[in-house]
Amino acid sequence: MKFPHKHSLKEIAEIIGCDYIGDPEFEVLGMNEIHVVTPGDIVFVDHPKYYEKALNSAATVVLINKVVECPEGKALLVSDDPFKDFNKLTKYFKPFERLSSIVSDSAEIGEGTLIQPNAVIGNNVKIGKNCLIHSNVNIGDNCILGDNVIIHSGTVLGGDAFYYKKRPEGFDKLLSSGRVVVKDNVEIGTNNSIDRGVTGDTTIGEGSKLDNLIQVGHDTVIGKNCLIASQVGIAGCVVIEDEVTIWGQVGIRSDVKIARGTVLMAQCGVSKDTEPNTTYWGTPFGEVRTKLKEYAAIKKLPEIVKNFK
């Protein structure tokens, strides 16, 4: 998330009430999670395991819970609780905005687009030309849809990220300020849930088609001309490259890359990156011919055991 205008390090420290290390006038342009940070951004870190990664990231301001040596050309915001202070910044720069009508007055809707009754279009939404938004679709604030997009009933674009920190008193939610971006010629079936990015974008690439009952987690990027069948669950921060086919009930863990041309057969449990133009099957998943040979060998085990008696 980029701020409406640049701020100084001192100004940001005053907003969240923390100390800082660096030039008080150090330029701050936005805030983002570590996988999407750019120079001028704030990134937060609250565990020593990830200090080095955060300090060496593209972010030039690190919101951290310990005084450490500040890398050259960067600044620190020193906080007792970076998670809570990151949320304070989200509330300050992207506060919740109540809808005053079922289709927000600030929404931009392109020529030839049809919005069916009971669809909710949030604040600052942009929808392109010749789209069809069916009844009971909910498009959250700041989402962007290209041209010729079809969204079927019951689908939600822009729900909050499933992102929590466990504390002794319960789970603390990381607030979401990102968007969902749907490119041209995408069709999304009924009762899909596509979460917005925490600070960045969840993206559905041009020409991709999604069946019913699919979950797409925050900050996931789906490429062009992908085909995704029903009951697929995709965690946050997944990268799915172009021309990927995912069949029913596949589960994909966070932070993996599904390479171009991959085919995931039904009920795959995907726990690591895939190779391009390769078909996978099983849980744990593997290349389909190898997995079929393994299952054929397992079928022979009773006879093998019998012969050893």
UniProtKB/TrEMBL annotation:
Keyword hit for S-adenosyl-L-methionine: no
UniProt-listed Pfam families: Hexapep, LpxD
InterPro entries: Hexapep, LpxD, Trimer_LpxA-like_sf, UDP_GlcNAc_AcTrfase_non-rep
Gene Ontology molecular-function annotations: N-acyltransferase activity; UDP-3-O-[(3R)-3-hydroxyacyl]-glucosamine N-acyltransferase activity
Single GO biological process annotation from the record: lipid A biosynthetic process
Gene Ontology CC terms: membrane
UniProt keyword terms in alphabetical order: Acyltransferase, Lipid A biosynthesis, Lipid biosynthesis, Lipid metabolism, Repeat, Transferase
EC number(s) on file: 2.3.1.191
Residue stretches spanning the membrane: none
The UDP-3-O-[3-hydroxymyristoyl] glucosamine N-acyltransferase non-repeat region domain, residue ranges: 26-91
PANTHER family (alphabetical): UDP-3-O-ACYLGLUCOSAMINE N-ACYLTRANSFERASE, UDP-3-O-ACYLGLUCOSAMINE N-ACYLTRANSFERASE 1, MITOCHONDRIAL-RELATED
Protein name per its UniProtKB record: UDP-3-O-(3-hydroxymyristoyl)glucosamine N-acyltransferase
